[in-house]
Amino acid sequence: MSTFVKPSERVVSCGDVSCEFLVDPIPRPKPPAIKVSTSPQHREIVFVDNHKPNSIAILRGAQAILRARGIPVREEVKLKLNASVTLDDAELAELASKGGLILCGISDCGSCSAASVRDAILLQQRGAAAIAVLTKPFESQMDRIATYYETDRPIPVVVLDHPMQNVGTAELRARSEALADAVEAIFNE
Q1: Model's pTM, two decimal places?
Q2: Which residues pair with 107 in a beta bridge?
Q3: Are the C-beta atoms of residues 115 and 83 closer than 8 Å to each other?
């Protein structure tokens, strides 16, 4: 005798219908393709720090390098308190309204990389130029998550060496330089 009772209502755990695409054979309306942009409306770099060890040091280093190269970078770094959770609608709307090139990360594990990728996708969906910053073992996260979103072209990702933790000053500086080089190349496309 089973004690299982079928729920009376559907439960959607992701905040959207992407999980249902995998388990529900009922056809759903297909969202429009996202028009991917790397050209910000306002020529400025905006960093989002997901509060991982050494991420703020790498971001601040990249800020200084980019400024020395004459590239405008917003002083404020948006702090994300939980790296493994996607930004909420208010945070996404606020970032999208700033109009700069938004860099989401730096992510160096599976769950935080997935969240940074989804942040970049949701910002792109809102018309913002946004890119995830990941470390090498997790660079495939964009391909894996973007499977559920149609785009007019692939969303770029900045990939840095791994790890970010337990590295010396020289390694942090090298990661800041690599980030600055990648951001400058995208910014000047």
Answers
A1: 0.84
A2: 134
A3: yes
Residue with tokens 């770094």: 77
What residues form DSSP beta bridges with 175?
none
Largest CA distance in the chain: 72
Q: Both tokens of residue 165?
A: 């933790």
Query: What pLDDT score was predicted for residue 11?
Result: 47
Distance from chain centroid for Cα 145: 11
Q: How far is residue 149 from each of residues 12, 64, 100, measured CA to CA in Å?
A: 17, 34, 22
Within 10 angstroms of residue 152's Cβ, the number of other Cβ atoms is 9
How far is C-alpha 92 from the geometric centre of its chain's CA atoms?
11
Give which of 80, 79, 62 is closest to 71, Cα–Cα. 62
pLDDT value at residue 26: 63
Q: How far apart are CA 157 and CA 24, in angstroms?
A: 30
Q: Cβ distance 130 to 138 under 8 Å?
A: no
Round to whole Å and give the CA distance between 81 and 52. 9
14-23, 47-56, 114-123, 164-173: range with lowest mean pLDDT = 14-23
What are the phi and psi torsion angles at 134 (to 5°)? -125, 170
Tokens matching residue 132: 């995830």
Output the CA angle 33-35-39, nearest 5 degrees: 165
What tokens appear for 89 in the block? 């609608």
